[in-house]
Every structure is written in C-alpha cells, then in structure tokens.
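Sanity check. The docking grid for manganese (II) ion depends on where the pocket ends up, so I'm generating a full predicted complex first rather than guessing from homology. Inputs follow.
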Amino acid sequence: MIKILHCADLHLDSPFSGLDPIQSEKRREEQRELLRNLVCYIRNQHVDLVLVAGDLFDSAFTGSTTVKYTAELFKSAGCPIVISPGNHDPYVKNGIYSSGFSKNVRIFDDERLSFFDFEELGVSVWGYAFTSSSYEKHPLDLEYSVNPDRLNILCAHADIIQSLSKYAPISPGELNASPFDYAAFGHIHNAPDIGNYNGTLAAYSGCAEGRSFDELDFGGAILLEVEGRKITTKKIQLAKRRYMIEKIDVTGAENDENVIEKIRLRIQMRNYHDDTSLRVILQGSVASDYAPNKQVIGKYVEDLYSIDIKDETLPTFDEEILMQDISVRGEFYRTLLKTIREGSEEERKTAILALRLGLSALDDKPIIL
Ligand SMILES: [Mn+2]
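Predicted complex below; grid placement will be based on this.
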C-alpha cells in the first residue's frame, strides 16, 4: 500500500487585508505553522508522495524568507513532492520556484502537459505550470499517452466547474476521456464532492485553512491510500480555525437576552468553540419596539474566536389594526407597506428602519438604533 497526500491552495503569505497589521502578521504566522504541521504529518504517517496542486504561495512575489522556510521544510519531508504552480504562484524565470528547492521537490515549469515518473512507487505524476496569472487554453487538449503499467495521476491547478474559465478549464468530457486514475486539483477553495469520470477520480482538496466567510469550515488535505489501482480517499484536517455561518430565526424576541439565548443554544448544539469565527444572521420577526443591538449581543456571546452579527429581522406589527387605522399611524404604515413588500433588499431595509423609528416616535417610545 502506498500513501499519497494531495493538498493545494495554502496561499502562504496572504495579505489578510481586512485585518490590522498585527492580526494579519499573526495569521501569516499561523499559515506557516500549518505548513510545518503538514510536513510533520507527512513524516509521521510515512507518506510516500505529496502533490501540491497550485497556489502554495499567495503571490509570485512572496518574500524570500517564506520561500526559504518552505524549501527547508519540504527538504525534510522524507518523500518526493510534486508542485504544479497555480494562478497565484505561477512559474516564472528567476521566480520563487526557479531555485532553492531540494532534489526531492519536482516542479512543473511549462504550460505543456508533462510528467515525472516515480518508478519505485509505480506512479507517474502528470501536470503543467501556470506561467502567468491565467491559462486560457484547455490543458488536456493535446496528444499524449501514459504508461499503462503505472498509476497515472494528474496534479494540476484547473477549473473543472466553469467551461469558459481563464484558469485552465478542463471539461467533464475531457476528464471522461482521460487516462488518469486520480486527478488532484487545486483552485476551487470550497471543495465540491469527489467525482468519478469514467474511472478518473477527480478531487479538489479545498483550501488548507479558510481566510474569510467565503471559505467555510476546517480546511485540510486529502490522503490517498493506494492498493494496486484501488484508491481510497480520506479528508484530513489541517486548519486549527474555521469560519462558519449560522442563520438563526429569532421570531418573537423582545429583547437582546432572548436573542443571546438563541445564539448560545445554536453554538452549543453545533459544538462551536474558540476555534470558530462565527457569522450569525438573525432572521424572523421580532417585537415591534425592539431592534437587536449587535454590540450588546456580541459582548455576551462567549466561547467563540470571534462573532459577526448581521440583522435581517423584521418588526412584527398587528397588520389588521394598522390597515384600518385612520390616524397618521395607519397612513404612515400604508405608505411604507409597498416598499417593504416589493422593494429591493436595500429599499426594504430602509423602509423597515423607517417604520420602526416612525412607529416608536408616534407611540412616544424610546428610539433604538
Ligand atoms: Mn487558490
């Protein structure tokens, strides 16, 4: 049995531009720590071959300290490592990949499909390099033939979802016709399920660790256990932190305590801890004189790495009474109703806020923003 580890999209040295300079440097440190943990895993599990399907670095101008750090870790991995440069870290002359890596690291340096042969493992790894930030041709659209005695693996940064992609599009038809036993892809950060294309297993490892609410859950890599031609895949977790989103219906809430209670329940149910940055989207209709106070709620929800609250609640009104109300209260309501029902999202938000504030003012209640 041989073990192959497939990873991609580590995006080392990402700018984390949404964070302040101290926080963003801390996140970059965590990225380097993740790489170190990955190499520890490779050594401890006696992995035989590692595939890095692009975007190992966030940029082709990644600092030499991080590149050296990576090269040293890879040198100590104890097995061959194949790298297919992606759109973020393309292979360029005198670039990050053109020197400094040890002999066990094999790097594709050309847009044309080629392969590295590992006779002792009975494996050939096929691939190509992005040589700039896009790759508009179909990489498999050429004549090539594989050694049928080998396990043939494609390791590549590619887009198999969008046919008109600028990022090395590979169509389902091309995968169906391909001779590969496994295709180790990088590029799509939220990995879709592994597909079987007429005998070719095609998988995205997803990103190693999410960097925002666009990249959910614990990132990681895929471990392949290969017996002859039989491949078993297993997801392994590398990330220590994750981003998650929860929609919570807080219908009936009359105050922040009611909302906090519901959020806490959800956190308990899902078992979120200080490894999780959570975005909570509050939905449903709440008491007409109440609007959730995001600061207060955030302060009283503990146990998370961070919380981000979005308020999409609507106020509850006794519609029948307001429809019949001949005073200015009813007129005000009827004026806003059309926008609340039919307006764009932004218009609805404004109209709901106007209704909340207006009715509070007319009822002589405190105005809460
Ligand atoms: Mn990427």
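Relevant for the grid: The mean pLDDT is 93.
Also worth noting: The chain has eight helices and 17 strands.
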